[in-house]
Design a protein that fits this description.
mainly alpha; 246 residues
Length: 246
């Protein structure tokens, strides 16, 4: 009976398994590094996009704030003139001017600051602020956002004061005249004559206080708008410096 001998393969050395493991490990590790590098690249591109968009928003805010500061300065002059004429013994002889100055007491939209905050909202609500790697920039962004919201809240408080003023003024000024003073684009023009006023000592007393409050809010919000403009200007310069923007 013929006996068959089985061939035995030589056992591999431990070093062979070590090198196989090492090569597999290096392949997985390099793949991980490549994926991590790609993720960092994508996040860096998103950061640049957010910064560019934020830069545009800040530039728009700065222009709007400059306009508000200028208009609030003009409004202060109008309100001062309003009180001066309102308290004259012959105030009714200046009614055309009083009607005109009244419009500066009730005008809110021209002085209201609504930030261009689309990028800011994306940074905050989407957890994207972490993409801003430069800590000094992210800190300045947050500081600007806080100051922006404070100015917006101040505008809302001013609106409430204007509402209380309107409640008194509606008994003094003729609404028909006020309508005739505005054109189709809502621009206000002084009447060419002296319209009738229902002016009383009590009405003047009450209007004086409301105008005083409007002046106080106007000055405070002009100051805050100027401070916010400075922060926006600083943040713009910081972004240009840190991200080498032209």
């Amino acid at each position: 009976m013929e006996v068959h001998h089985h061939a035995h393969t030589a056992r591999k050395k431990w070093t062979h398994y070590f090198w196989e493991f090492l090569m597999l490990f290096l392949a997985v590790f390099c793949g991980f590094l490549a994926e991590l590098q790609l993720e960092h690249y994508i996040e860096h591109q998103r950061e640049k996009k957010f910064i560019s968009s934020l830069h545009s928003d800040l530039a728009a805010d700065t222009l709007r704030l400059s306009s508000i500061i200028e208009q609030r300065q003009h409004r202060l002059i109008m309100l001062d003139s309003f009180v001066l004429l309102l308290n004259k013994p012959d105030a009714k002889n200046y009614s055309r001017h009083l009607y005109y100055y009244n419009s500066y007491a009730t005008r809110g939209a021209a002085f209201r600051f609504t930030p261009v905050d689309g990028t800011m909202q994306q940074l905050k609500n989407g957890g994207n602020l972490r993409l801003i790697r430069k800590e000094n920039v992210s800190d300045s962004i947050l500081a600007y956002d806080v100051s922006t919201r404070a100015l917006v809240w101040g505008n809302q408080d001013e609106e409430e004061i204007m509402d209380t003023y309107r409640n008194i003024a509606e008994g003094v000024f003729d609404g028909k005249v006020l309508m005739d003073m505005r054109d189709e684009y809502n621009y206000v023009y002084m009447p060419s004559y002296d319209p009738a006023l229902r002016i009383t000592e009590d009405a003047v007393f009450r209007l004086n206080y409301r105008i005083h409050m409007l002046v106080a809010f106007n000055n405070t919000l002009r100051r805050d708008a100027n401070a916010l403009k400075l922060k926006a200007t600083y943040l713009l310069s910081l972004i240009k410096e840190e991200y080498h923007m032209k």
